[in-house]
Amino acid sequence: MTLPVSYQELECVYQRLLISSVRCLAVSAAKSGEGVSLMVDALAKRSASVGKKVLVVDFNLFHPRIGADDWHWSNGQAPQPRTMDDDSIWYLPAPLDAASRLRLKEPGQLEALVAQWTAEFDLVLFDCAAQQLNNQSNLPPSRVMAAADGVVICYLAGVTASCQLQSCCQQLTQDGVNIVGVVMNDRFNPSLKLELIRNLQKFSHRWPKLTTWFTKKVYDSQLLSLRY
């Protein structure tokens, strides 16, 4: 699944980055499976569509998605970035070796890499593991997020409890993370408008014309288009 670069919600996130002057953005979530990689890829393509040079760094050490046998970190030193389908988007694999994870925990190490990457790329994106996977024996996601200019949290509404999201944001703020926004994934949380339209279809076989009329009224309602 991919998001088109013209997607309205994606554009809102992208414009927020421009307003906030964020050059290095980390994307994470409270729990796994909330669309972090989807958002990272969409932002990378949106930035590349206007000629920007983008670097995507895989920092999901629990479920890495980028990498190859001959392409890996060594003692905290990143390998050369590689392109895949788009020459404007470059990638780095996750630092899976123990020496790199240990070195990157040290103060200033990640920050130095961020300074190096932002000097070469217009936008750097960190694909981070979920906050619930914080593990001190590994490279904690919160440590990676703290090195970025800002963080976007993905939230799968209807699956992840709002209290889990709130707890995640509070903990990250205490860890010195700059949260610039929360992106709500409505895959399992349809809007009131869509729920009304779905339920109206139950009456279409008995009152087809009336159902069509009500459905159009609901669909055109500006009030029901608002999200809270």
Automatic annotation (TrEMBL):
This is CpsD/CapB family tyrosine-protein kinase. It comes from the Bacteria. It comes from Neiella litorisoli. Transmembrane segments: none annotated.
